[in-house]
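Protocol step 4 of 6.
Sequence for TonB-dependent receptor (Paenimyroides aestuarii) entered exactly as in the expression construct, tag removed. Do not edit the line below.
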Amino acid sequence: MKLIIFFVVFISFQSVTAQVSFKGKVTNNGLPVETVVYIEEIDTELPTNADGYFYYEFEKEGLYHAKIQNENGFIQDFEWMVSADNPQFHFILNQEPVADQLDEIVISGSLKPVLRSESLMPVEVYTPTFFKKNPTPNIFEALQNVNGVKPQVNCSVCNTGDIHINGLEGPYTFVLIDGMPIVSGLSTVYGLSGIPNSLIEKVEIVKGPASSLYGSEAVGGLINIITKNPLYASKYAVDVFGTSWGEINTDLGLSLKVSDKVHWLMGANYFNYSNPIDKNKDGFTDITLQDRISFFNKFTFDRNSKKQLAVATRYFYEDRWGGQMNWNRNFRGGTDVYGESIYTNRFELLGLYELPFTEKITSQFSFTAHDQNSMYGDTPFLAKQNIAFAQFYWDKTYGKHDFLVGTAARYQLYDDNSVATSTADETFIPSFFVQDSYKINKLFSVLGGLRYDYHKTHKSIVTPRLAFRYESKKGTILRLNTGTGFRVVNLFTEEHAALSGAREVVILEDLKPEQSFNVNLNFLKTWMLKDDLMLQAEAAAWYTHFTNSIIPDYDTNPNEIIYKNLEGYAETKGISLNVDAVYANNLKMMLGVTVQDVGKVEKGVRTQQILTENFSGTWVVSYTFNNVNLTVDYSGNVYGPMRLPLVSALDPRLPYSKTYSLQNIQFTYKGFKHFEIYGGVKNILNWTPNKNNPFLIARSHDPFDKNVQYDANGTALVTAENPYGLVFDPTYIYAPNQGIRTFFGVRYSF
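Step 5 output, structure tokens:
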């Protein structure tokens, strides 16, 4: 489907001023569209009315450039000549971006807006159109069709998860909202599931270290979730869908013009799943029951000037539980019926302000308050975390140099009732960073960066960064990035396995911060072939080396999870390929494959990292039948074998997972004005991780280990009642435990 933009120009001259009276009209398939046209030369945004028209008096004739954003968040650039001799113009804008667009504006690679094709760090961009091809209630699940990015489920009972990038576990992935590091520490476990897709304008993903700009936690890469701009959001938006398992998700959006200089975006999301299901007959819920609500407000001020101010708030509450099928709240914290019950309260404030100076100086700030009240069986975990963050940076261009100089400060107050936190931990980390991007000539660019952080325990930490970019005359782009990173570990906020099950947590030493060195090579090429075929290929190869790595040891003692700095090194290396294709704007394909090797070497012995696949693939294939306004989306992924955490040498469960695939199909009808109707089937193959396994949860019939006998060392004994010498363990899981289901939904946008 295409958005056809007709500019019909009626021009009158005045002999002195030579003004041009301009009248434009924006339509979609012949219907008028209310949108905004931004004209760069006059730095003005012109809204269209209900009939699709906008008007402007140009002071002079000449060449002008405009940006127009459609309802799916895709921006396209235009240029045209304003003159009396050229009264009519036709511009065609793709309604749906097929894949990452080279002309997309990105900020995550360098903290400043640049064209994706010109960024020295490779940045992948995904819009709501991509996520709608497999609708999900939150961003955690939505990332399952991004190549090299894996939402990893870590617990059979409460379904906690984290996001892996290129095989690195969730704590190595830095998650930002509008550039603010507000999803970290405690919120990495449950905070990701509370970010609704309805708020998202786009998601930028950087694979590889970004510590020189963003500090600790950005070792493996970052995910920047950019929320919608109130100026471009739909005035009214509703998206409701449900599944045959009983899940209901509702998104509401409202965008208002408060005044000429103030715009407001309000969003609300409600998700509910209250239907206990036990398909694998182990007496436990297959997926966690959830009751979740989130409210979002965003204000932008003075959008017609070059100086901006934006402020956003979000409140999130979730009540979730999983456990034995007969569990209810009367059993919370007891030892009669096992359940894992988590209450989460979270508040976020974030903002951006461009200071009113001649120089471009930007300030950003955020504050988060996270309160978690959890019971894992009879084990309470009560935790609070407050994070305040502020940074200022100066963006200055001088000749061929593009400088960025900034300072940041992060304050964190964390407290919980675990053995690792005897007193509340209060941390203040001041930082300073600088980078210089230098364009050598039309073909070569280079970027150098350095960040300095001071931590009260680990003292001075320096992280450098170096990047090269080459673009051939035929449009082939090569990028080489290298840098170092560091990560300070919060065990109980990152390792959920330390709380669930019967394993004892053992910390052998004072943990030092992890350090890493990374190199990444990226290739990007776009071909415009005959017969309306566009093809884009992006390939990457990477290597990351870790020292002082902290990897939970499940192998030394089956009754313990041991934490210590690795006496050796860990590494990840691999290659990936993304191919995007569009044929005649009807057939669209996004295909990706990743091959990787993630492991550790200690005392000369190499071991594959737990829950990390050696290869994976993703795909999304879409075809639109224009004559009936119907689009079919076929999406899926495939994952290779992973090493899994067994409880004992006699544990009968598979030590390595089998190769598996999750596949979905969706049908979307767009024949009604303002409405879309969609539906389909998720997990067509009905695959779940209990396939080929005798059970998933060890000793699900005795979750409090009341009938387990132990030897003098605390090791479970083999008995007639316990033939494998097991203890209760719900951490053996590597994929969603939810089988085939249908879904149906309706979207309204005005």
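Step 6, annotate. The chain has two domains: 2-94, 227-749.
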